[in-house]
Amino acid sequence: MSRILIIEDEAIIRASLHRLLERHGHAVTDAGSVTEAQQHDLKAFDLVIADLRLPGPPGTDIIPLVQPIPVLIMTSYASVRSAVEAMKLGAIDYIAKPFDHDEMVLTVDRALKQDALRRHNETLKGEISRNYPVAGMIGSSAVMRTVCERVHRVAPTDTTVLILGESGTGKELVARALHAQSPRSNAPIIPVNCAAIPEGLIESELFGHERGAFTGATDSHRGLIEAADGGTLFLDEIGELPLEAQARLLRVLQEGEIRRVGATQPRRVNVRLVAATHRDLKHLVSEGQFREDLYFRLHVFEITLPPLRERGDDIRELAQMMVEKICRRLNRPPLDLADTAMGKLLAYRWPGNVRELENAIERAVILCDGGTLDADLFSFDRSEVLPRSQSTSLDDYFVRFVRENEQALTETELARQLGISRKTLWERRQRLGIPRLKETS
To answer: Distance between CA atoms of 414 and 39, rounded to whole angstroms?
Structure first.
């Protein structure tokens, strides 16, 4: 049952609307003015319906008092201007008097459903924030906790960020997390792969061009930097950017302005730059392939992504998540990963990192005929498989660490020290035959 507050000074209309909404299952309270409405607990309602013209303050004055509760404005002075003004002030919708009863019921239902969806989304965002410190990034190893902590620190700022890491480690995912947790999250993030744009077109693509700037420029063109105005520009593989384009980018960072190809006047832009590369920019500077002044502009705050082979048990979490995601995408029933298959995944070096892992799992899901992904569905280059002694030593270390510390540490503390979740700790205890002491006492 939804709780609705009606603010209407005409008693006949107020009573009629009260009865109408009660007949449709809502709990209704009414008031004759904004001042009278303030005698109630305003935060206790799910929706407020207020007349625009009231004795004393107008109905729109209730909006800031009840936010984020939705407010529906009604008035007999129906006009486009008053509707626009009400919406600008934060009203969820607008209805003109005299209103049709069915129209009013539909408008109320729509407003309540929209607000329920808003609250549901806020709850989901909260759950994601608790479960995954950086949305979309899976893994509880120590190295990934460090990455998440650095993302949290720098995301709310406008600081330029340089993301380093091998190909396939998830650099764009980090860039999107930085954008999503920034004050610019409602503006666009524009990703640009500098290595994928032909050198002759990159300046036009990034900075735009004016009509007639070169052969074939029949119209003016807004570049990707302008498209990111107010938001985030993500330049992936920035080490591939030609020197002339580097000089233009430096001006964007220093002056906050661009000049389209063929233009005589600069244009102001407000973008937050996030760059990424798998190359050694310092080495490129020493070889004259990358501008030193741009390097120092980029190298303000650095986030280094570890290769998958250094993330330990994160591979297990990632693999299980990817199996579920890929099965949904391919409309396949849920599949299990056999222990032998998981062992094979853990023993591989993953030179292609997370991207290679996802491709291997997708291929296995397509080839699978039963309900389990077996080891024979995964075939790898033998030169990239870890020596058995190295793989075994990880389990030996786990057993030794747990046995030496389980009397002094709680399960949560043990998991934190090992860089894994409590669920993963429990699973590895079962697999390695070392149940908790209290279970054997």
So the answer is: 54
Q: How far apart are CA 307 and CA 269, in angstroms?
A: 35
Give the neighbor-by-neighbor strand order of the sheet with 93-96: 27-31, 3-7, 47-51, 71-75, 93-96
Question: Do 172 and 199 form a contact (C-beta atoms < 8 A)?
Answer: no
Quick: pLDDT tens for 47-94.
999 998 899 999 999 999 998 899 999 877 656 677 777 788 888 888
Query: Which residue, 144, 117, 120, is CA-closest to 133?
Result: 144
Give the C-alpha separation, 195 to 239, whole Å: 8
pLDDT by residue (tens digit) across 253-312? 999 988 888 888 888 899 999 999 999 999 999 999 999 999 999 999 999 999 999 898
Tokens 């920035």 belong to which residue?
A: 238
Amino acid at 8: E
CA distances from 339 to 315, 346, 433 (A): 13, 10, 15
Report the pLDDT value the prediction gives residue 441, as an integer from 0 to 100: 36
Bridge partners of 30, per DSSP, are 6
Q: Which CATH class is domain 3-124?
A: alpha beta
What architecture is domain 309-386?
Orthogonal Bundle (1.10)
What is the mean pLDDT of the segment spanning 141-160? 92
**Of 140 and 66, the one with more pLDDT:** 66
∠ CA 379-385-391, nearest 5°, is 120
Residue % of the chain over a pLDDT of 90: 48
Question: Of 92, 97, 108, which is closest to residue 20 (Cα–Cα)?
Answer: 108
Is 0.70 surpassed by the pTM of this model?
no
Beta strands 27-31 and 189-193 are unpaired
Comparing 19-28, 116-125, 241-250, 356-365, the range with the smallest average pLDDT is 116-125
Please tell me the predicted confidence (pLDDT) of residue 392: 44
Provide the angle, in degrees to the nearest 10, between the axes of the packed helices 11-23 and 101-131.
60
Residue 315, CA distances (Å) to 96, 353, 417 in order: 59, 10, 18
E strand or H helix at 436, and its extent? Answer: none
Helix (H) or strand (E) holding 279: none
- CA-based nearest residue to 96, from 114, 110, 79, 109: 79
Give me the DSSP letters along 330-374.
TT----EEPHHHHHHHHTB--TTHHHHHHHHHHHHHHH--SSEE-
In Å, how far from its chain's centre is CA 239?
26
Give the architecture (CATH level 2) of 142-306: 3-Layer(aba) Sandwich (3.40)
